[in-house]
């Protein structure tokens, strides 16, 4: 996040602020914030370097970061090692499925068609969902069943884009190559650019299949997203040009006389633009999803200065200067000054009666408990260090603040460790149900079950629990939107 998009320190206007003092009502930079260790509980406390009052971490909305810079980074997403691996893996499945579909009988051909379309759309939906939850790299999805991971994504992808490919097919069927009206063709391309991103967003986020065919609802959501959605649409123009160029390269590679490898590489190359488009849509949800009810509102606020630690020093208390004794003026001195008495002669040191022993070594301090180090790392927003410490905890977790379990659950989900994420989030739901963070933990746990683990039944059960246990909260409203209509 650029410094210009961040709030600035009240006492150092050129420095970005990462903390807030409720007593001073002032934003604080790292130099104005004090981080001190409380020895009694081995926890770190934040305080204002000006007034000494307790300070809080300043959080800003994700949309404060330049969205154009986020979108620019999406072009590199498929070129990272994990992205290249995904291109090759999905390309191999698509190439083999297409080959089987072309030469196999009807029933095996339909299975191959489902594998072809399901692997293509399923990978795009996965990129959208994982990006919307903060994943920086492609993580392999957990395969649950043929229906959930192949058939359903294929149906959702085809239905969501039906308003694009059906008019296109009718256009090609009705007009021959010499009589195709260019204005109508240009209008169809424009509608495709405007509608395709939102159709992919709808299909990836679990909307009902019937709503995928409702253009009014789709357009309404795009209007709520506003300018950021238009920025994504604008990126579709160069992406379409790059895709056309990439498809020419893929066609040339496919024509090479290299069995197996040529089709595989061609399919992998052709997936570059779809992967970038899915990443763009995921970034749109990551930064602005709260505008359309995707996620809990509090999820979209993050520390203004992640990873930065306060370096301010506590002000020393002012000690009053000693008062000088009143001196008599020489002209008023009534007595003659007396010569100072000589100092008494120093007495000889007493004879040592015993042999002096070596001083005892200072006691070695006991190592800091693992839980205290974990709490301090979470409070300092050093989440990578905190996650490494959390993994070292025993199966029966010791008592920890709900904020620690929640932070570790979110971090573990981001890096793809869903088992640990579920374990951490369950701690909040089971042992701290009255904590203000419990509703949010339940919603994130439900999203993990439904969107990443393919356990729709557990997700629905958790959503109903949130609606009934925490009515009126942001979490309950989001959970209600994820439940089917009664």
The average pLDDT value, as a whole number, equals: 81
Q: Give the total of domains.
A: 3
Count the E strands.
7
Low-confidence stretches: 331-339
Secondary-structure class: mainly alpha
- Any idea what the radius of gyration is? 33 Å
Reading side by side through the largest sheet, how are the strands ordered?
2-1-5
Strand content is: 5-15%
Measured as a percent range, the helix fraction is 40-55%
From the N-terminal CA to the C-terminal CA, the straight-line distance is 43 Å
N-to-C SSE string, H for helix and E for strand:
EEEEEEHHHHHHHHHHEHHHHHHH
Helical stretch count? 17
The largest β sheet comes out as: 3 strands, antiparallel
Quick one: overall form?
elongated
Main attributes of the structure:
about 475 residues; mainly alpha; Serine Threonine Protein Phosphatase 5, Tetratricopeptide repeat; 3 domains; three-stranded antiparallel beta sheet; two-stranded antiparallel ribbon; 17 helices; 7 strands; about 5% strand; elongated
């Amino acid at each position: 996040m650029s410094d210009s998009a961040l709030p600035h320190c009240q006492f150092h206007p050129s420095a970005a602020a990462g903390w807030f003092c409720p007593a001073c009502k002032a934003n604080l930079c790292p130099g104005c914030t004090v981080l001190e260790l409380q020895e009694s509980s081995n926890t770190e406390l934040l305080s204002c370097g000006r007034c000494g009052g307790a300070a809080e971490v300043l959080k800003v909305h994700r949309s404060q970061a330049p969205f154009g810079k986020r979108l620019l980074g999406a072009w590199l997403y498929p070129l990272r090692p994990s992205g290249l691996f995904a291109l090759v893996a999905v390309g191999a499945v698509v190439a083999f499925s297409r080959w089987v579909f072309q030469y196999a009988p009807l029933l095996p051909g339909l299975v191959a068609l489902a594998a072809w379309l399901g692997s293509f759309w399923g990978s795009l939906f996965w990129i959208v969902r994982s990006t919307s939850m903060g994943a920086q790299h492609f993580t392999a999805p957990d395969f649950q069943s043929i229906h959930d991971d192949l058939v359903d994504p294929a149906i959702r992808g085809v239905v969501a884009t039906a308003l694009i490919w059906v008019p296109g097919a009718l256009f090609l069927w009705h007009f021959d190559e010499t009589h195709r009206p260019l204005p109508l063709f240009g209008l169809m391309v424009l509608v495709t650019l405007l509608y395709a991103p939102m159709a992919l967003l709808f299909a990836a986020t679990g909307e009902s299949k019937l709503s995928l065919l409702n253009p009014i609802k789709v357009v309404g959501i795009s209007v709520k997203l506003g300018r950021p959605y238009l920025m994504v649409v604008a990126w579709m123009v160069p992406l379409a040009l790059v895709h056309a160029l990439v498809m020419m390269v893929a066609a040339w590679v496919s024509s090479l006389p290299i069995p197996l490898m040529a089709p595989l590489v061609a399919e992998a190359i052709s997936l570059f633009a779809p992967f970038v488009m899915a990443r763009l849509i995921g970034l749109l949800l990551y930064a602005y999803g709260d505008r359309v009810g995707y996620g809990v509102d509090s999820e979209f606020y993050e520390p203004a200065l992640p990873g930065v630690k306060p370096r301010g020093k506590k002000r020393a208390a002012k000690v009053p200067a000693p008062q000088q004794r009143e001196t008599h003026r020489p002209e008023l001195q009534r007595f003659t000054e007396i010569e100072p008495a000589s100092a008494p002669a120093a007495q000889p040191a007493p004879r040592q009666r015993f042999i002096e022993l070596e001083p005892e070594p200072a006691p070695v301090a006991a190592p800091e408990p693992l839980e205290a180090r974990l709490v301090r790392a979470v409070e300092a927003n050093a989440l990578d260090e905190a996650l490494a410490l959390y993994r070292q905890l025993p199966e029966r977790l010791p008592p920890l603040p709900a904020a620690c379990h929640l932070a570790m659950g979110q971090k573990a989900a981001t890096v793809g460790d869903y088992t640990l994420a579920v374990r951490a989030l369950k701690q909040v739901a089971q042992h701290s149900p009255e904590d203000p963070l419990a509703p949010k933990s339940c919603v994130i746990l439900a999203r993990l079950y439904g969107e990443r683990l393919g356990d729709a039944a557990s997700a629905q059960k958790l959503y109903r629990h949130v609606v009934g246990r925490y009515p009126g909260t942001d979490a309950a409203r989001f959970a209600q939107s994820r439940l089917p209509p009664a």
